[in-house]
Amino acid sequence: PAPTLRKHSIATIGADGIGPEVIDAGVQVLRKLASLDGTFKLDFEEFDWSSETYKKTGQYIPDGGLEQLQKHDAILFGAVGAPDVPDHISLWNLRLAICQPFQQYANVRPTKIFRGTESPLRKANPGDLDWVIVRENTEGEYAGQGGRSHRGQPWEIATEVSIFTRHSVERLIRFAFETARKRPRKFLTVVTKSNAQRNGMVMWDEIAAEVSKDFDDVKWDKMLVDAMTCRMVLDPKSLDTIVATNLHADILSDLAAALAGSIGIAPTSNFDPTRKNPSMFEPIHGSAFDIAGKGVANPVATFWTASEMLIWLGEDEAAKKLMESVEAVTERGVRTRDLGGSAGTKEVTEAVCAELEVIY
Ligand code: ATP
Ligand code: MG
User: Fold this and answer.
1) Which of 45, 83, 10, 20 is nearest to 299 (CA)?
2) Which residues surround ligand 1 with Cβ inside 6 Å?
3) For residue 23, how far is the Cα from the chain centroid?
4) Complex-level ipTM
5) Which of 31, 152, 229, 257 is the most exposed place for a label (fewest CB within 10 A)?
6) Closest atom of ligand 1 relative to the 297 alpha carbon
7) What is the pLDDT of residues 81-111, one digit of tens each?
8) Which residue intervals of the chain are DSSP H helices?
C-alpha cells in the first residue's frame, strides 16, 4: 500500500507592516520543503486580519474567527502593530486575543549565533551562544490588573499588580524542564527576583525546587534577573535553557536577540502544550513600518519560526534540513541589510529554496 501522507493544516496571519512579506516568504519555503520531502503535506489558509481591517470594521478578529482558527494544527503569524493604532489596542485585540483563549501559556524563544553572522560580543562566535528562553505567557506582570486614582493630581496613584498562580507557574516550569531535557546539555536556569519581591518570586523558587525532583536527569540553577543580564553578556556559554516570568523573559529575550546579532533572525513559539488548541508561531520582530513594502525585510526569523512549527507538528527531519539550508545561505553571504548584507527578501528566499534542492 502507498505510504500515507502526513497532513498538517496551517492558518497564516501576516497582519501588519513587513508581516505579510515575511509570511509569504515562509509559505514559499514551506511549500518547497514539503514538495521535496514528499512524506507530508501542508495546507495553508490565509486570514487577512490586520490593523487595516480594524480601522475599517472596528475588529481585528471577525465574529467566529477563533472557531475558524481552531480547525487548524498551527498558526503562522507575521507581526501586528501600525503607526496609527496604539500598541496596547493592536496587541490585545489580535495577538493576545489568540494567545489567551488558546491557552498558549509557554512562549519559547531560541537564540543562537548563525554561521556567517556576528555577535556584538567581541569574544562570542557561532556555537558559543545557543539558548532557549521559556517565557510565561498568560499572567505575571502583564496580567492587566491594577488601576489609577486621582488622575492628573500630584498625588495620583497607579498600581500594576502581578498575578502568579501556582497552577500557571507549575505548568510553565514543568514545560521548561521538559524543554531542557530535550536539548543535549539538559541544563535549566530559573530566573526570578526573589531577593526583592518576596511573594510571587519566592513561590517561583519553591515551585522550581519541587518540580526539579521529577527531572533527575536535568541539571538546574537559579539566578536573580539582574545578575542574569551580566551572565548573558559575560558568560554566554554557561547557559542553555532559561525560564522566567512574562516581564523578565520579555526583557531577557530582547537582550538575547541583540547578542545573537539581529532581531531579524529569531522566532517565538506560543505553545499550548496540552495540544487542545493550535499553537502559534511568529518571528520575534515587529511590523517594522520603516522598511515595509521595500522588499528588504529579513525572512530568516520566519524561516526559523517555520522550522520550530515543523518540530511541533512532528516533522523534525524537515525542520532540521530547513535550518541547515538557512544557515548555509547566511554563511555564503546571502544576507539582508540588518545582517550587514545587501540581499532582499526575495533573494534570500530563493537562495534557501535552491539550497533545499541541494540538501534533499
Ligand atoms: P513592535 O512594537 O511590534 O516590537 P518595533 O517598531 O518596536 O515593533 P520592530 O518592528 O521589530 O520593532 O523594528 C525594530 C527595528 O528592527 C526596526 O528598525 C526594523 O526595521 C528592524 N527590523 C525588524 N524586523 C526586521 C527584519 N525582519 N528585517 C530587517 N530589519 C528588521
Ligand atoms: Mg517593540
Assistant:
1) 20
2) 18, 79, 81, 87, 263-264, 285-288, 290-291, 297-298, 301, 336, 338
3) 14
4) 0.94
5) 152
6) 28
7) 999 999 889 988 998 899 989 999 999 999 9
8) 19-37, 51-57, 65-70, 87-90, 96-99, 166-181, 200-212, 225-234, 246-259, 300-312, 316-331, 345-359
